[in-house]
User: What shape does this take?
Amino acid sequence: MGLDDAERHFGNYSAAPKLRLQAGDRARFHFLSTGYDIHFAGGRFHDLPPIGDQTYGRSVVCIREFTDGEEVCAFCEEGAADFSNQFAVWALIHCIYHNGDNPDSNPDAEPWEQFKLGGRIVFKETIEESLLIWLRAGRAKSRFLQFKGFAVKYGSLEDRLFELRRAGSGIDTDYALAVVKEEKLAKKAVEEAKEGLLSVEDIFRSAIGGGPAWIPPRISEDGSEEPAADEEMPVSEADLPSVEEVAEGLV
Ligand SMILES: [Zn+2]
Assistant: This one.
């Protein structure tokens, strides 16, 4: 009891580290899961409305659904009725290609390196961290089925360099998963990247989960911050190094 006990129960982590993409961003990564292990999971989530003056609501896994009815879900008991299907998978995120340069106005912030990708200039933010790709399954599970499609086709999500691209924002957000190329990571690199990762199920069950931030559909989002994802970037330097385009889109 008391403060010390309370603090002990908080645990050492504050939040599950998640990949966050803006419209037009392309993340390049290796999955840290075959698709058939503890580093990939999905579930039905309660979409809870924002509290007070918060803009974003939060999502909490429905523990009743998640345990096939064995555990009682407090949110079901309260009558929460908005649901979404969500899934998450660990990935070693190598970099994100942005349409614009580093927005960090801190004087110490480094400009991002420029590359050509698919005929346009992109700005490379190096990440090299294990992060969760946590998404809503999408209409008719369309996003989820992209991930499953590759796992079924190759028997595993591992051993390939993938790209996840976000298009649009707000309720028009969409994600496209594609293979860049077959590329095995060194065993040691995989071991290091997987070290200490919690299972996705544990994250869903814990307070550190929380799912992707979301805006209830009733509130329309101001579209003014939409980056110019599909506009032509002014080409300032003809001979920037090129980045390999994706080889394979939807299966
Ligand atoms: Zn529930």
